[in-house]
Amino acid sequence: MTPLSLFVLDLSAEGAGRLTRHDPAEPVIPVTDLGVTRGDGIFETIAVRGGVLQALGPHLDRFERSAAMLDLPVPNRAHWTEAIEAAAAAIPEDPRPGAVKFVMTRGIEGGSHPTGWALGFLADDPSGERAGGIKVVTLDRGYRHDVAQTSPWLLQGAKSLAYAVNKAAGREAARRGADDVIFVSSDDYVLEGPSSTVIARFGDTAVTPPVELGILPGTTQADAFTALEAHGVATLIKNLSPADLVEADALWLCSSTRGAAPIRELDGAARTVDAAWTELMNTDLDARRR
Amino acid sequence: MTPLSLFVLDLSAEGAGRLTRHDPAEPVIPVTDLGVTRGDGIFETIAVRGGVLQALGPHLDRFERSAAMLDLPVPNRAHWTEAIEAAAAAIPEDPRPGAVKFVMTRGIEGGSHPTGWALGFLADDPSGERAGGIKVVTLDRGYRHDVAQTSPWLLQGAKSLAYAVNKAAGREAARRGADDVIFVSSDDYVLEGPSSTVIARFGDTAVTPPVELGILPGTTQADAFTALEAHGVATLIKNLSPADLVEADALWLCSSTRGAAPIRELDGAARTVDAAWTELMNTDLDARRR
Fold it and tell me: Which of A39, A209, B86, B187 has the fewest other C-beta atoms within 10 Å?
């Protein structure tokens, strides 16, 4: 990623949402911020194409949902929108997709207010993965499928900064010669990727797992389903097992800047890349005007 | 906590472990550091009493162990010791215990080297908790007792910066009117606190759970066991169930700056505070000269 623009959002009572622009390389976080000492905060990443923030509303909705799950203050939607739009305005036209990552931490330990910022950047070019597909391994997420209900303090379904496990899973995938991961619950429910949502094709139906499993509501998956439905495809939210993944006609991982990446290998077994559905989803995803 | 002194450790090849002193309130972390964007890093907190860094060796050992579990570079022990000692030197005599927290993150995303620092601070005075005891609830950690073996990418047993779950568990405890937490595995093994180790007394024997459960090797618990053994107490590393906790004669949570805090209430039931063993452990813990 290539950082372009940084706007720090003053979330103190007196600050009233004031924005200050900084060089993205400039240190702006003290070592006593709970974001860095505890991963205690939340984030979202929004793709920017043709100057448009894609799925801004759903990302803000999910940010609010994560804030509630972590007992953080309700984000002021107007302030955050202003910060995100300021960061997006600095993104030039480029073959690579632009993106804005926005973050709210619990703030300085012992302090009175959260820390917030929005970072505009250029993401990696996803065209190779979209065309050629990705190699994926399934990995145990360790949790039962129902922990979001039984044990909400485990924060499953919140997009928190505490992503060390997600990064460790990515390194495990690399050790196994793969590009990405699908997490599976300890009782064999297909969950999500470390930073993506699973879509599986069965005949003329597209399926994704339900958020009740403690996974993130996929903003890109939701728009991909809208695209598929516009082309007459049936969509279904349904539990999947690892065996179901083996049976599926085709598989994708969806995320904001990558769009829909087809899976060409799962746990070492070659999979058919469905170029038609991939094209259909990504054409509509890239063309989103909101 | 009251921050006192901050030393940033240059972990680049050219930096060669150079230390720079900063005001602890000064921002020194850019928003592209993986420590703050992913909780992708490790830390330790060492108590400082009478100018002495207590259990420096075991803390450095555990730091190395965490680094290996997260595929971070092997810490240069001489450089880290220098940084930690520099931070400790700024801690004045005070009724509150001093401490040094040292942190290594994976560094700037796309960069070539980790970020490191040591922060000297005064911790909260533990004398009230030591004398009066703490109220504790048991909470599900969601993982089986054996995930450290089956699924090492879950990083159980690493002291990572991704502590949002530990903080959320603390808030759940507060909602239940308690001060702290003992985590229990999904298959009913007693694990550890969010930032402490469990000790249980059964007659003349002190028991703590084994690190094979994916818990941290307790540096304070180890020295507390040495203190108990010096007074003729038998010590044992052994699996415990929640039912065993109910049966125990007395219970403690141990951590660096707090020492051994006796549990006066567990899941709403009053527990006997063992003042004699508490005093015995804390006297020796506070008197450690290394």
Answer: B187
Taking only the tens place, the pLDDT of each residue in B211-242 is 999 999 999 999 999 999 999 999 999 999 99
Nearest Cα residue to B266 out of B173, B186, B201, B195: B173
- Contact assignment for B171 to A71 by CB distance below 8 Å: yes
Of B101, B103, B142, the CB nearest to A142: B142
Residues of A in contact with B214 (CB under 8 A): none
Question: Using CA atoms, how far apart are residues A145 and A189, in angstroms rounded to an integer?
Answer: 6
Closest residue of chain A to B44, computed from CA coordinates: A37
Judge: B168–A161 Cβ closer than 8 Å, yes or no.
no
Fold classification of B128-286 is D-amino Acid Aminotransferase; Chain A, domain 2 (3.20.10)
What's the confidence (pLDDT) of residue B12? 96
CA dist B262 and B134 (Å) reads 6
pLDDT single digits (tens) A109-161: 999 999 999 999 999 999 999 999 999 999 999 999 999 999 999 999 999 99
Neighbours of B203 (CB within 10 A): 9
End-to-end CA distance of chain A: 23
**ipTM attached to this prediction:** 0.96
CB B280 within 8 A of CB B227: yes
Q: Do residue B30 and residue A29 have CB atoms under 8 angstroms apart?
A: yes
CATH 3.50.50.60 fits B2-125, yes or no: no
Cα-flanking dihedrals φ and ψ of residue A80, to 5°? -65, -40
Question: Shortest Cα distance from A173 to chain B (angstroms)?
Answer: 10
